[in-house]
Amino acid sequence: MSSKSKVVKPKFVIEPCSINVKVGSEHGNAALTHYLHNKNGVSHFYKDEATNQVKRMLEYNYPDNETTNQVAEEALQYFLFDFKKDVPFPEPIAPKFKFIDLFAGIGGFRLALQNLGGKCVFTSEWDEQAKKTYQANFGEIPFGDITKDSTKAFIPDGFDVLCGGFPCQAFSIAGKRGGFEDTRGTLFFDVAEIIKQKQPKAFFLENVKGLFNHDKGKTLKTILNVLREDLGYYVPDPKVMNAKNFGVPQNRERIFIVGFRKDLNIDSFEYPLPVSKSVTFQDVREEKEVSVKYYLSETYLNTLVKHKERHASKGNGFGFEIIPDDGIANAVVCGGMGRERNLVVDDRLTNFIPVTHIKGNVNREGIRKMTPREWARLQGFPDNFVIPVADASAYKQFGNSVAVPAIQATAEKIIQIIQARK
After folding, report:
1. What terms describe the molecular function in GO for this protein (predicted)?
2. Same domain for 143 and 76?
3. Active-site hit among 17, 120, 168, 334
4. What's the domain range around 214?
């Protein structure tokens, strides 16, 4: 658009805040935000539904006025140029490759690949709280349930890399060869189906370390058989990667699976080596005094101590753990134990008056939970990453996320290879 060109403001307009109004179809707001963030070549996949959503919004905001398709089109085009892209992590100005983000969570994969110059052209995530965090940071609302054909219909053609941290599920493969059809009813089936239909140059999948032994190894064997034999991709042996080897002080092991389309003639892949940077909890610790709400009550702390003592008497190592400033955190995971196994000592508290309902007084030993921001740093998220949800949701979201630096280091290797095949 030339500097002299002007976009005429239509009679009826919609404001950016209206995007969060739940009107219309389940895909309406996702399609609208995806349209606003994409340009020629991809935007047409979203334009019809985006226009329909604008029409619904106008009808919602201006119920006494007739909203024609032409009015909706004019409002959409005005919105396109008026749309505020002042999100913390905008798309690269001149992207080097395109990718899609499945089971996106709060965007760990997206952050890593955008850092490498990638443009995300489609994303899906079913959790509503995670969607709020994703939108706050990337300006897009993810599409929902990826198992639905109506959701898959919005996936554009021509992207380079498929990314996803799909959940681990057992397959019904008794007496069968463990192929594509045997994965039906699982979320991996939907990933494989998208790869089969869209034929990306590469894929990058992440899962828990336990996938290696899941269902006595049958699950991973089936996954690799589908990717290699049924889909025809070159898939090097998966590797367990630890976040602590990539610049964050967290002992987090995850299995990475990468693959390349066979016509690219790629027959080798080297996972990234650990970085030399040594970090400890001190490097991610809050710089200022944190709220008393993160400090354990004497009653709660006493319960944890007794619980650990009971297990210790049985020869078990279960129970809470305090991470020293010069130590490495345990894996941050969902659930109470994810926080209880990552307690810290912080004696900077000056106000011991509880701000939440607790049993007993606040402990005077300085023992507290890590904050959501500290968990974000343990996962490699920068400090300008917005946390718009309550603490309970934030812990869950960062616990479910990927460790960004480990993802980025591996993705960089993938991108280098496929770009060398242009």
Report:
1. DNA (cytosine-5-)-methyltransferase activity
2. no
3. 168
4. 97-276+402-419
